[in-house]
Amino acid sequence: MILRSARLTLEPISPDLARRIVARQEQPGDNWHREYPFADELGPLTSLATAEPTDDPFTMYLVRRADDGCAVGGFGFFGPPDELKQVAFGYGLVPSARGAGLATEAVGLALDHASAWGARVAVADTDVTNIASQRVLVKNGLTETGRDDARVSYRRTLASR
Q1: Looking at residue 114, which CATH number applies to its domain?
Q2: How far is Cα 113 from Cα 12, in angstroms, rounded to an integer?
Q3: What is the pTM of this model?
């Protein structure tokens, strides 16, 4: 299921696509930005590449700009909601796509999607020095729940549907 907003799409990453991304085997129509994927996405993508295909909505997604179709980043849930219906997530954009509100839009779109599929709480954390990421989370209604020398944790209650 492709998620759409005014300026971007979130496209689910299948195990086959994850294998190709890790191997950098781009095919016509993939249109990956030259800086994608990030080094910290390779571990989750490698895990996804070995998984069985599924229609689970709590997966990894390509973040693709609507205007030029370029895949400029990724968004991922760290699995389905737990017994408390809490879901954790992370995201990232290539440097040239940052600062235009795309990350804020991608997170909002994904959290609406999570809520529609039964998640009731969303959590995320970010590096204590990553002020831009902290702003993205706050703009999406997450509030700080804790911090240490390295990480800041955030949480938001999602609307019931």
Answers
A1: 3.40.630.30
A2: 12
A3: 0.94
* pLDDT per residue of the chain (161 residues) written in tens, 0 to 9: 899 999 999 999 999 999 999 999 999 999 999 999 988 899 999 999 999 999 999 999 999 999 999 999 999 999 999 999 999 999 999 999 999 999 999 999 999 999 999 999 999 999 999 999 999 999 999 999 999 999 999 999 998 65
Tokens read off for 96: 């040239």
Beta strands in the chain (DSSP E): 3-4, 8-12, 60-65, 71-77, 86-93, 121-127, 143-147, 151-157
Domain that holds residue 142: 3-157
Q: Which residue has the tokens 């930005």?
A: 33
Number of domains composing the chain: 1
